């Protein structure tokens, strides 16, 4: 179990993917300090190499230093984008495994969540500093605080017409659908058997969503789940010849033949309400006609 944060602890903010400027995360820094935390900024914050927050070597070194520094009790990824998979195979997790700490982020950071899951450690899928100023994120930020500081959380969601009722217990895994698709066959690929999988995505073409769900099914990622949680599929795109189905309808098509409980419309993903989820934690999912509840065992 990773220790909960306490006032006075040091946390680090790094950018493993797309570049970001200091002004973009100033609200997050103030928020963390208001929680009583000391904030250490990595060299990748403010760095620029074309699209990225510094070149691969800089981003790798930045992440590695924070993983190895035992005085740092949590690492917060500043934003997503693309770039984490370019460096992850060069990261040495030896010291991190001996002295684990929270690693926080979502979207492109799904690569780190999945890789860390294979090491037997938990991580936090949650809002990132870039998004703190966005309107409507207060509850997302509060759930991150509660999880970081070891407070209990119980999440609920409204019923959805596509939900399949039932209960399940299993480790919670998942994240960004595009990233999970990309990780298939790599060292960061995860087993989903007997687990509760959650999915979200942003700005994908609908036919891409279908192709990824076909691939997930063909590669055995969907068949033996304990349960499935579908978060936001935000700002989906269509082709001039319409695909003919929404993202949720596509997912329903490829999971409807299975019997585990499925919850649609769960507040996780690229929307202001993005509840902090503990990847790797034993989790109970209950889907009923009245709604959805997710709790940690």
TrEMBL record:
InterPro entries named among the record's database cross-references: Carboxypeptidase_A_C_sf, Class_I_gatase-like, LdcA_N, Peptidase_S66_N, Peptidase_S66C, S66_fam
Catalytic site positions: 107, 200, 270
GO annotation, biological process: proteolysis
UniProt entry tagged with the keyword Hydrolase: yes
Pfam families, per database record: Peptidase_S66, Peptidase_S66C
Residue stretches making up the LD-carboxypeptidase N-terminal domain: 11-126
Keyword annotations from UniProtKB, A to Z: Carboxypeptidase, Hydrolase, Protease, Serine protease
Domain LD-carboxypeptidase C-terminal intervals: 170-284
SUPFAM superfamilies on file: Class I glutamine amidotransferase-like, LD-carboxypeptidase A C-terminal domain-like
Gene3D superfamilies, per database record: Class I glutamine amidotransferase-like, LD-carboxypeptidase A C-terminal domain-like
GO MF: carboxypeptidase activity; serine-type peptidase activity
Family in the record: Belongs to the peptidase S66 family.
Protein name as it appears in the record: Muramoyltetrapeptide carboxypeptidase
Organism listed in the record: Pontibacter ummariensis
């Amino acid at each position: 179990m990773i220790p909960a944060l306490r006032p006075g602890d040091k946390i680090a903010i790094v950018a493993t993917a797309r570049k970001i400027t200091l002004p973009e995360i100033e609200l997050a820094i103030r928020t963390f300090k208001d929680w009583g935390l000391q904030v250490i900024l990595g060299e990748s914050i403010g760095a620029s190499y074309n699209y990225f927050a510094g070149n691969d070597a800089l981003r790798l070194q930045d992440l590695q230093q924070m993983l190895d520094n035992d005085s740092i009790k949590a690492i917060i990824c500043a934003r997503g984008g693309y770039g984490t998979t370019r460096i992850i195979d060069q990261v040495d997790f030896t010291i991190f495994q001996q002295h684990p700490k929270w690693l926080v982020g979502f979207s492109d950071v799904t690569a780190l969540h999945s890789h860390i899951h294979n090491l037997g450690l938990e991580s936090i899928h949650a809002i990132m500093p870039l998004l703190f100023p966005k309107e409507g994120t207060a509850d997302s930020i509060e759930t991150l605080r509660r999880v970081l500081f070891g407070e209990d959380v119980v999440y609920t969601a409204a019923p959805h017409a596509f939900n399949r009722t039932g209960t399940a217990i299993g480790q919670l895994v998942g994240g960004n659908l595009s990233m999970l698709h990309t990780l298939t066959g790599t060292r960061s690929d995860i087993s989903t058997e007997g687990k509760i999988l959650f999915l979200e995505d942003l700005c994908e073409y609908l036919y891409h969503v279908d192709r990824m769900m076909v691939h997930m099914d063909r590669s055995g990622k969907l068949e033996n789940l304990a349960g499935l949680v579908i978060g936001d599929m935000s700002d989906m795109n269509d082709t001039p010849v319409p695909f003919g189905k929404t993202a949720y309808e596509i997912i329903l098509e490829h999971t409807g033949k299975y019997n585990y409980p499925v919850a649609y419309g769960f507040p996780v993903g690229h929307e202001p309400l993005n509840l902090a989820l503990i990847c790797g934690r034993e989790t109970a999912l209950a889907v009923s006609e009245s709604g959805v509840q997710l709790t940690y065992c």
